[in-house]
Amino acid sequence: MPTSSHGDGAQPSPTAPVPSPSPSPSAAPAVSAVGLRKAYGDHTVLDGVDLRIPAGSVFALLGPNGAGKTTTVQILSTLVAADGGQAQVAGHDLATAGRQVRAAIGVTGQFSAVDGLITGEENMLLMADLHLIPRREGRRVAAGLLARFGLTEAAKKPASTYSGGMKRRLDIAMTLVGGPRVIFLDEPTTGLDPRSRHNMWQIIRELVTGGVTVFLTTQYLEEADELADRVAVLNDGRIAAEGTPDELKRLVPGGHVRLRFTGPDAYRGAATALPEGARDDEALTLRVPGDGSQRALRSLLDRLDTAGVEADELTVHTPDLDDVFFALTKETAR
Question: What are the strands, taking DSSP E only, across the chain?
């Protein structure tokens, strides 16, 4: 495994992740919540949030600043108490088994928990001590995680000398010392350069391949699109929508199929068969509204077949998560 003490060029692991089997819908969820509520004074942050997150998956919670994403993480990780509702994490009830919940989870917050005054290795060993891991076993676990995250060469150096990407990798490595089954990552790539962000994505994929459940909050919508099995959008204290990234994209209008033709006869035939399509007579293209689903695409192709027309090029365009985000959220007066 390559390691580096300079910059963020180290890769987390050369092993290509093997796709994990899809969790059974009937299997016990890693995280579940019903009616979570939280208010600070007269300001309601969470107003009845329901969640069900399968084990061994990545769940992304999106929302504008102040929507309650961090509060949700704090409640589910036992850092603050909910005012109402019920929740279970890793099979343990938050209200009655907080100790068991804490033993089963890891949390990486928005701000690094790394102590810059000590070395990366000492940070890891400190976490091992906090988990009451015997010294010899703690050193073995620390060395293994430092190697896994490409930090072996930098392990003896003060963490204050690490780059932003290296500190974030060390932060997550520290989170993994106790072998958590559920990890909460609160905006883990904020402030990282593109290469460091992609390295972090690879780390998250490998964690899930190993059976870990990842609860991710992020301000980068392409990050949720890239990583998440399911995405929820939090707005005004409630879940505005939840589904796979593709399902959410189909909620927003603007999707279409673009058909291009090289011959004018085929183009005119398609325009007749698909009168709802927006025409571009110069480019010989049609833009037909659609949600990008397999059913809608099959219907369109059937209509072309019936008309005896074949497109030379077909491309499907769907809204991205940015469009979904803007459609489902709004600025909230403070």
Answer: 31-40, 43-53, 58-62, 84-89, 92-93, 105-108, 182-186, 213-217, 230-235, 238-243, 256-260, 278-280, 285-289, 313-317
- The CATH number, out of the four listed (3.30.70, 1.25.40, 1.10.150, 2.60.40), of the domain defined by the range 256-318: 3.30.70
Instruction: Enumerate the β-bridge partners of residue 46.
Output: 38
- What 3-state class would DSSP assign to 213? strand
pTM of structure = 0.75
Which CATH fold would you assign to the domain 31-114+162-249? Rossmann fold (3.40.50)
Beta strands 58-62 and 230-235: pairing type? parallel
Question: What does the DSSP assignment read for 25-61?
Answer: TTSPPSEEEEEEEEEETTEEEEEEEEEEE-TT-EEEE
What is the residue extent of each domain of the chain?
31-114+162-249, 256-318
Q: Are 3 and 151 in contact (CB under 8 A)?
A: yes
The type of residue at 214 is V
Other Cβ atoms less than 10 A from the Cβ of 49: the count is 25
| Per-residue pLDDT tens over the stretch 253-299 | 778 899 999 999 999 999 999 999 999 999 999 999 887 778 888 99
